[in-house]
Amino acid sequence: MSKSKPSKPKVKTAKTATQSTKKTAVSKKSTAKSSQPSLKKATPKPVPKNTPAKAKPPIKKASAATQKPSVTPARKTVPAPVKKASPPVAKKAPAKKIPIKKAPAPVAKKAPLIKKTTPGVSSKAPAAPKATVKTPANKSAAPAPEPKISTTLVVSSTGMPRIASLPSAPPPAPKSTTKKVFSLPSISSDPIAAAKAPVISSEAPIASKSGALFYDSHMHTPLCKHAWGEPEEYAAQAVKAGLKGIIFTCHCPMPDSFWPTVRMSESELDLYVELVKRTAAAYKGKLEVLLGLESEYFPGYEKWLESLHQRANFDYVLGAVHWQSKEYLNKFEVGTIENFRRSYFENLALSAETGLYDCLAHPDLVKNYHPDSWCFAIIKNTVTTVLDRIAKTGVAMELNTSGLNKSYSEMNPGNEMLRMMAERKIPIVIGSDAHKPVRVGEHFVTALNNLSEAGFEHISYFKKRQRIDLKISDVISSIRRATDANA
Question: What is the reported pTM?
Answer without folding.
Answer: 0.64
